[in-house]
Design goal:
This protein is α/β, with parallel strands linked by helices.
């Protein structure tokens, strides 16, 4: 099982953006040091909270500072860009990262971004599908391609520098559980990043998503693997449940205020039209089924989540600055020290060795062995 991050990122609109970007880069260095596997960076252009407009530029900087972790876009919003530019820039970035790159793609779901670009809502998904088709052809082709689409036309165009990873760099599909995104992923055999608890009522339930992906893949003659499937969720760890809630309560309410501002607050409410003044951090965690607690509780809840999905290859923790940096880093350290080894099984043999030692001690075996050593040592000195 792999562990990583889905990093939009979210920063309060009142703060210095330069310092926020530097903190994001520091974050990636730190989780690289802790042994996390991957981190995917979002693209946003409006609304004030999500402030990285060009994840590829950010990744180039992060890759120079963090030497091991896989990096990627989470996601490139395909309707905002010409597909040739996306394919060419990502192939180039794949070289700069020496193959540590994943291209995460999606249609873009932030309403203010769609308004900024003047994109009709009903055109966003078909634009994204057409762009994805072009990008895959450009990355996989051995020569120029011509494409006559509804939204883009290419005539004898070719990327002169192909991706570092061959036959092409990995492409992943972010999904809120929509039937369209799951079927698109299956059609092209792409890894999927699924929201573990989607706020969208029409979403395919998590336990049914893999069968949708697999059916679409089989129909298209593609192969998909659960090992490439990631579940995306909010997690915070502290020494106790009470301490974990204390860490994040104020930050949660700040984040909810952002959602009240962009019109997507319904996912947090106890009843329709509930005023923000009544919302509590506890109800947000309950309604969104976020995983908050001590290492043992968090481990149990993650296991339960993966059992619900029927199995997946990893977890992406959504990064929300709902705690001060020191508490955020303590959460990451506890996750890496205790939750990751418990779920990956890397500490199982060490724990068995300790349990055996305790049992031998209780049964007097160790004490008897030590007495035998003393008698042997005494006999040697006497001789």
């Amino acid at each position: 099982m792999k562990f990583g991050f889905f990093m939009m990122p979210l920063h309060h609109p009142s703060e210095n953006p330069t310092l926020a970007f530097e903190r994001d880069l520091d974050f990636i260095e730190y989780v690289d040091h802790l042994g996390f596997d991957e981190c995917f960076i979002g693209e946003h252009h409006s609304a004030g909270w999500e402030t990285i407009p060009a994840p590829d530029i950010f990744i180039a900087m992060a890759a120079a500072r963090a030497k091991r972790i896989t990096l990627g876009t989470g996601v490139i919003n395909l309707p905002y860009h010409h597909p040739f530019h996306v394919a060419e820039r990502m192939a180039f970035l794949d070289h700069l990262t020496r193959g540590r790159l994943v291209m995460g793609v999606g249609p873009g779901v932030l309403a203010t971004d769609l308004m900024l670009f003047g994109l009709p809502v009903d055109q966003v998904r078909p634009m994204s599908s057409e762009a994805l088709d072009i990008i895959i052809r450009l990355l996989e082709s051995d020569g120029p391609i011509t494409y006559e689409g509804k939204y883009w036309q290419l005539k004898e165009m070719e990327i002169q520098v192909k991706s570092y990873q061959q036959p092409r760099l990995p492409i992943a599909m972010a999904s809120s559980g929509s039937m369209n995104s799951l079927q698109q992923a299956g059609k092209y055999g792409l890894p999927v990043w699924s929201l573990a608890n989607s706020p969208i009522a029409s979403s395919v339930p998590l336990p049914q998503q893999w069968s949708v992906i697999e059916e679409a893949a089989n129909k298209a003659g593609r192969q998909v693997s659960r090992d490439d499937w990631r579940l995306v969720h909010y997690v915070h760890v502290a020494e106790s449940k009470e301490k974990a809630m204390e860490d994040i309560s104020e930050g949660i309410l700040q984040a909810v205020s952002y959602n009240f501002g962009n019109g997507s607050q319904g996912q947090f409410l106890d009843y329709p039209e509930q005023p923000f003044s009544e919302v509590t951090a506890e109800q947000v965690v309950r309604n969104r089924e976020w995983i908050v607690g001590d290492p043992d509780e968090v481990t149990r809840e993650i296991r339960a989540l993966f059992d619900q999905a029927g199995g997946a290859g990893g977890l992406l923790i959504t990064i929300n600055e709902w705690a001060p940096v020191d508490k955020m880093y303590r959460n990451l350290e506890l996750f890496a020290r205790y939750v990751m080894p418990a779920l990956q099984g890397t500490s199982a043999s060490i724990q068995r060795a300790w349990e055996k030692t305790q049992r031998w001690n209780e049964e007097g075996i160790i004490a008897g062995y030590r007495q035998g050593m003393k008698r042997s040592d005494g006999a040697k000195r006497a001789s």
